[in-house]
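Researcher: Quick test of sequence recovery. Tokens follow.
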């Protein structure tokens, strides 16, 4: 039986953050979430996550997917693994160790690590780096046999010059770990897992290495700069997946798509587009330029230009923008058109309904083929509570109307431009709710003569 042990107890001091490192996000998911998803794709019998700093917040992400073991303070990776071993089932013989700050490890690499027939007490993944600064160095003897892993702070100049580094990813024999871990000498208050290598070698246990081919996916993240590097790698992967599936990404360098987002074939993503969270975009849609879609569903053949869409559903063949804002709870049926500067919140707009210019539509249920004139405002808030508005099918709301909620506009009714509607409007009626226009003939000339006397 094989277990995964994920180390996630450290604070991540080098991030200079109030947030614990493994909760920092890469392509829209916390690092620890990436690691958990990778583990879920592997044939493992149990998973243990070692938590410490901000353990409640980390545990909230892990949920029921793993056994949580607490490490009381930063006592080192060796101490963390030792505590995890205590929590493993009795028949677990092998342990895949993963670091929570290493989010992009390819599933294939781990699968081959687990599948390779091996009598090694440990098989570790190493990487050859042009700049190995900060990583544990892989020290070998003249015959190339692994002798030890030496952390940078303990390394002399010759060791620091070694460019082969420890990734922290490895499969360990549980029995051997239980034998060597308790005797490792601490460095300050920390026990290093990496010291187990020299201990195994000294005990005559075979330790193997596997060189990672895809180096940028096996590097741990300690700093904000490394976080940005991982973000770029993850983003490239996501865009490559979308393009392979038939999506046109006009400019991958300025298109930002989170890991879980789905986009249908023949959709075009224009530059400066952000698709985030649980967003799904259908086929043949056009998104962007300069559009953000968060946790939303965009239907087939919809067009969303220079707009912000959050927690909304946009039906097929809709057009939105430029400069519109769909807020949570917005639902656009098929063929809805929202033009410039239209804000919608918690509202349903029926088939073929149009709001072309400068509107606020909040807490409204709007039927099909309704025309909403420029400048219409649904006055949904009285300073204390939000109230609903209903607009029937094929109603016509003239420009610059205020619909003061709660209010109901009947089907096919008309609201005259400039009206402030405070009472329900029956179906097919015309509501005019504004001061009547009065023209005062010659008013300008009369005033001028009063002020400056008659002109010659
Ligand atoms: C570690 C390795 C180093 C390797 C590098 C690869 C050790 C001693 N060093 O160094 O050889 O090159 O990773 O990225 O293992 N953690 C705990 N409890 C602790 C300390 C750390 O759970 O007491 C967790 C952290 O949350 C983190 C992971 O272990 O997710 C690695 O810890 P970190 O301090 O980042 O180790 P590195 O200095 O990067
Ligand atoms: Ca690290």
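Model:
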């Amino acid at each position: 039986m094989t277990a995964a042990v994920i180390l996630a107890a450290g604070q991540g001091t080098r991030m200079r953050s109030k947030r614990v490192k493994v909760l920092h996000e890469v392509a829209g998911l916390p690092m620890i979430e990436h690691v958990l998803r990778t583990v879920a794709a592997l044939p493992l019998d149990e998973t243990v996550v070692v938590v410490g700093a901000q353990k409640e917040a980390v545990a909230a992400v892990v949920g029921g997917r793993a056994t949580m073991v607490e490490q009381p303070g930063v006592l080192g990776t060796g101490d963390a693994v030792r505590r995890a071993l205590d929590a493993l089932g009795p028949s677990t013989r092998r342990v895949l160790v993963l670091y929570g700050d290493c989010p992009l490890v390819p599933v294939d690499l781990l699968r081959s690590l687990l599948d390779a027939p091996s009598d090694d007490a440990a098989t570790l993944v190493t990487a050859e780096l042009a700049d190995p600064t900060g990583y544990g160095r892989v020290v070998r003897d003249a015959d190339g046999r692994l002798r030890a892993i030496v952390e940078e702070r303990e390394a002399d100049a010759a060791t620091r010059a070694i460019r082969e580094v420890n990734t922290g990813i490895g499969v360990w024999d549980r029995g051997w770990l239980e034998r060597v871990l308790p005797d490792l000498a601490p460095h300050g208050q920390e026990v290093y897992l990496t010291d187990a290598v020299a201990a195994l070698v000294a005990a005559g246990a075979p330790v193997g290495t596997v060189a990672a081919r895809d180096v940028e996916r096996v590097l741990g993240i300690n700093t904000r700069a490394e976080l940005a590097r991982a973000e770029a790698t993850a983003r490239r992967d996501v865009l490559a997946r979308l393009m392979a599936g038939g999506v046109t990404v006009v400019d991958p360098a300025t298109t930002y798509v989170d890991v879980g987002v789905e986009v249908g074939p023949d959709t075009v993503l224009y530059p400066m587009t952000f698709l985030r969270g649980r967003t799904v975009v259908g086929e043949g849609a056009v998104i962007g330029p300069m559009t953000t879609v968060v946790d939303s569903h965009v239907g087939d053949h919809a067009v969303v230009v220079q707009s912000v869409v959050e927690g909304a559903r946009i039906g097929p063949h809709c057009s939105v923008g430029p400069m519109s804002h769909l807020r949570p709870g917005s639902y656009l049926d098929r063929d809805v058109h929202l033009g410039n500067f239209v804000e919608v919140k918690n509202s349903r707009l029926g088939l073929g309904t149009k709001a072309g210019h400068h509107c606020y539509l909040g807490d409204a249920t709007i039927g099909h083929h309704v025309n909403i004139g420029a400048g219409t405002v649904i006055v949904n808030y009285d300073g204390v509570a939000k109230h609903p508005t209903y607009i029937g099918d094929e109603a016509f709301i003239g420009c610059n109307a205020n619909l003061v909620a709660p209010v109901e506009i009947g089907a096919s009714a008309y609201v005259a431009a400039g009206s402030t509607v405070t009472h329900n409007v029956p179906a097919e009626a015309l509501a005019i709710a504004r001061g009547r226009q009065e023209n005062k003939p010659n008013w300008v000339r009369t005033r001028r003569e009063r002020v400056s006397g008659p002109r010659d």
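The chain has nine helices and 39 strands.
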